[in-house]
Amino acid sequence: MGYQAPIRDMKFLFDDVLKLDRFSNLEGFADAPKDVRDQILEEGAKFCENVLAPLNSVGDKQGCKLNPDNTVTVPDGFTEAYHALVEAGWPLLSADPNYGGQGLPHVVNMAYSEMTSSANMAFGMYPGLTHGCYSAIHEGGTDEQKDLYLPKLASGEWAGTMNLTEPHCGTDLGLLRTKAVPQADGTYKISGQKIWISGGEHSMTDNHIHLVLARIEGAPAGVKGISLFIVPKFIVHKDGSLGERNTVTCVGLEEKMGIHGNATCVMQYEEATGYLIGEPNKGLSIMFVMMNEARLGVGLQGMAVGESAYQAALSFAKDRRQGRSLTGPKEPDQPADNILVHPDVRRMLMDIKAHTEGGRAFLYWTALYGDLLHKSPDEAVRQKAGDYMSLLTPVLKAYLTDKGHKNASDALQVHGGSGFTEHYQASQFLRDSKIAMIYEGTNGVQALDLVGRKLAANGGRAIQTFFAEIDAFVAEHEGDADLAPFIAGLASARAQLQDATMWLMANGMSNFDNAGASSHDYLHVFGLTGLAYMWALMAKAAYAKAGTEPFYDTKIKTGRYFVDRILPEIAGHLAKVKTGAAPVMALSAEEF
């Protein structure tokens, strides 16, 4: 059995947990009532299950090919699938109607994006990065630039990329050397090499719009001197027609552990014509629009690949017969029981299920705040939404990709020796999931961003708001007998997150190594607390309809598993937070 989109769970989140219909007075939400949302989920599922999922293994096995003329050939079927994607209008779901989009809420689009990533992560990166490019130009471009580039980027007719990393610098962008030389006509000549550029070259679209970080001659050193440029593969004339080929070339393809179906390119710029976005030396602020969107998208990838791996492992477990149940044969007429009877197999499957469903809720809940940030008329709501988007982005990116990779590993373990072969897709899910822990800022960098920047921003307003929201929920439901385990678990997690936060405030500033050494475990305390809140919200919604459908009873049981078996891990992370830097930094360089 191939990938099956979890649309029942998505509808539960939209209708019962987030209750999206209560926002029908807001722009975009008015165009997305339940019947429209359901249709999007159902049709999106058909496309992802029937078109994209069958190409996932094809892309993994074939990979991409760099040709002698510096063009790139994508795996069989990818081009046809991409054209079908564009023709169906899927990239336009949440794009601005001023540029041809449907203007629907981003939270609805996130559900479709999840299906794409689950069905075929490597393929989903092509339209995903294009949407990020669209968002950056939408945020920082001139009206002329928006009119020229956004309609074709929004539709997916043109591809978009972001070019940050260079052979000698990754996260430390202050070291970049790509240069931009001003020209008399207001353009710039861009020269330099960028590496690890996802979707940097292919023939699925007529044009590529590269967003390139570069330093204008004479600019300040470090990150204060970085500007952002639009560098098209083919120059776009004012009437929208394509002109001459720009001097930007794919000179290599990376050989990667996973996501083989995505062309990860080495891009060479030789005095290529570029167009400044925004002000000189202010490029990072615009690029971060794309990067932050990408980070949420990567968190989504981690959760989505875990979903695919879970489905494959569950299917295997139901078919594979090995041994007997410890409490006696469950199918005595068969030579052996299926391995789903074994507690340890169930442990792994339940771990994946609880993390994935909790992670989905956390992502959609946060995406809703992203919509409110732009569409709510209430200034206080917009402030809270902006605070949450800033605070939670590193948590979602790092925690969900850490767990997504762990989920893929557990799913392979369920397969036993079969998972270590290429006959099953288990190894592909594991290989594909690893990159999500690395790109768009490694998870260690996300943890440093959380403790070093996001916690202290605006005097700690964001996390205090988060604490206050949890406190209000606990106070409202502390007398509910059904919810008692969920409320107790959430209250305990919240207290431990506050404990960890106070420890960092007291010890992190006096010795920055304390913050650095504790950041990973602090982020996991935060991630577990976030999932505890999500499971409490889901349990409340499920209990309200318990007994009406098996789905709700299953949801409650899965939530209890999270509270009883996963949430206790928070205490171990808190203990490690409080050890500080001493044990981490104890060895000299020579002692390693």
Q: Topology, pairings included?
A:
Layout: H1 7-17, H2 34-52, H3 56-62, E1 65-66, E2 72-73, H4 78-88, H5 106-119, H6 121-140, H7 143-155, E3 159-163, E4 179-182, E5 188-198, E6 208-216, E7 227-232, E8 234-236, E9 242-245, E10 248-253, E11 264-277, H8 283-319, H9 343-375, H10 379-415, H11 426-434, H12 443-454, H13 461-477, H14 484-507, H15 512-543, H16 550-566, H17 569-577, H18 582-585
Parallel strand pairs: 3-6, 4-6
Antiparallel strand pairs: 1-2, 4-5, 5-11, 6-7, 7-11, 8-9, 10-11
Explain what you see.
This protein has 592 residues and is an alpha+beta fold. 55% of the residues lie in helices and 11% in strands. The protein has helices at residues 7-17, 34-52, 56-62, 78-88, 106-119, 121-140, 143-155, 283-319, 343-375, 379-415, 426-434, 443-454, 461-477, 484-507, 512-543, 550-566, 569-577, 582-585; strands at 65-66, 72-73, 159-163, 179-182, 188-198, 208-216, 227-232, 234-236, 242-245, 248-253, 264-277. A 5-stranded mixed barrel has the order 4-5-11-7-6. The radius of gyration is 24 Å and the shape is globular. It starts with 6 loop residues before the first helix and ends in a 7-residue tail after the last helix. 52% of the residues are buried. The mean pLDDT is 96.
